[in-house]
Structure formats: C-alpha cells, structure tokens
Amino acid sequence: MFYWLMKYVVIGPVIKAVFRPWMVGRRNIPAEGAAILASNHLSFSDSIFLPLMIDRRMAFLAKSDYFTGKGIKGWATRMFFTATGQLPIDRSGGKASEASLNTGLGVLGRGELLGIYPDGTRSPDGTLYRGRTGIARMALEARVPVVPVVMVDTGSVMPIGQRLPRVGRVGIVIGEPLDFSRFEGMEGDRYVLRSVTDEIMVALQRLGEQRYEDVYASTVKDRLATAQAAKAPTSRH
C-alpha cells in the first residue's frame, strides 16, 4: 500500500510533471510473471524513473548504505528508497554476494519484476561496461526472461556527485525479452554464465547504441580514483 501511495500520489506525479519522462517499448514488459529488467546505469535517478514509469511493481537491489543513515536525512532517504521499491544489499562480495543473489531470487520467486544493473555500478563516463555474471545466474536459476532496458539522458539530469537534479527530460527504451531457456540446468557452468551475461550486454549496447568497453566499471573507477589521487597536491609540513 505504501509503495503504491508514494508511486501514484506522493512522488510519482511530481517527478512526472517536472521531468516529463517518455517510454518506448512498454509492451515488452511481461504483463504478469517474474522477469529481470536489465538496465544500463548512468545515474542515481535510474532506480527512480524506471519503477515510476511501469505499471507493475518492481524492486531494485540497492546498496545497503542508503538504508543506514542517521537522523532526519537518513530516515527520509530510507523512506524514499523503500517507497521506490529498493531492497538493501551488501556489495562487499563473498557471502554478501550470495545473500544478494538470494534476495533477488526471492523477488523472482514471488512472480515479481526485478531490476538489475548488469555492470554492477554507475558508469563513470557514460560507457557501457562488462557485465557481472550474477544476472545470468539469477535468470537461469529462476528460469525467467531478461528484458533489456536503456535509460536515456538520466546522466545529464543527475550526474554522479550531484545532489540535486537538473530539470530536463529523460527517456526509457524497453527491448524485447531475451529467452535463455536453452541453458536450463546449466547455472553452475561459469562459461555459460559468461555467455549469457555477454548476450545481455550486447542487447543493451545495440538497443541504446552506447559505447561499450570490455572491462569492469569498478576497475575503471579504481583507475580514475588512483589518477585523481596522484594529481592531488601533497601537503607540506
């Protein structure tokens, strides 16, 4: 009830009036049953616009940090993410990654829509990067289709590091569902998982005509952080 109230009464109407989001390919989202919506990731706002623009309820796996803030700001952030269907996950790897996988499978097991960013993090420069194989494992274990989604101009409306969005129009392009039933029972094969993940990334690249680089986005971010640190002036005592 809280989700629908925020979507259609509190948050949704305001965001739609200000940003006038458009959508192409709405019919490609299954009317019922579980599915994974695999999206490129340009901005923090991606996780807001997509759930608000589709008719069905959906959930995104979001960093647990967004749910642990203190004070009024922390409470407001937590309520906002809950209202837009975000689920807290720990991205530290190891057992945390397994727990995140189980959280996603739980959503799919209930016959709902699950939003995932295959490259694992926001693109630092608008490029589409190599996908993580967790999405393939979820798709094969849950036996659900994967729907490619391209967010358009969200990076211009709310770039990385900017707290308040700029007023501008954003768009969403929904591609045709990808069927991986031919790999049923092969979710334990890492070569199959990589093949499925790469197929998803190719579909995203073709749908959005986004520049692609076959390296993990997290690796690029680490390189940029190292370069910035090297350029930073050192303090003299």
SSE order and pairing:
Blueprint: H1 2-10, H2 12-19, E1 22-24, E2 35-39, H3 46-53, E3 58-63, H4 71-83, E4 86-89, H5 95-109, E5 113-116, E6 128-129, H6 134-142, E7 146-152, H7 154-157, E8 171-174, H8 190-208, E9 212-213, H9 217-231
Parallel strand pairs: 1-8, 2-5, 2-7, 3-4, 3-5, 6-9
Antiparallel strand pairs: 7-8
Pfam family, one: Acyltransferase
Domain Phospholipid/glycerol acyltransferase: 35-154
Organism: Microbacterium enclense
If classified by CATH, what would the architecture be?
A: 3-Layer(aba) Sandwich
Q: Superfamily at the CATH H level?
A: Glycerol-3-phosphate (1)-acyltransferase
The low-confidence parts are none
The proportion of strand residues reads 15-25%
Report the average pLDDT across residues: 87
Q: What is CATH's topology name?
A: Glycerol-3-phosphate (1)-acyltransferase
In spatial order, strands of the major sheet run: 1-8-7-2-5-3-4
The number of domains is 1
Highest CATH level, the class: Alpha Beta
Rg is 18 Å
What's the total helix number? 9
Name the helix and strand elements from N-terminus to C-terminus, one letter apiece: HHEEHEHEHEEHEHEHEH
Task: Tell me the distance between the termini.
Answer: 59 Å
- What structural class results from the helix and strand content? alpha/beta
Major beta sheet summary: 7 strands, mixed
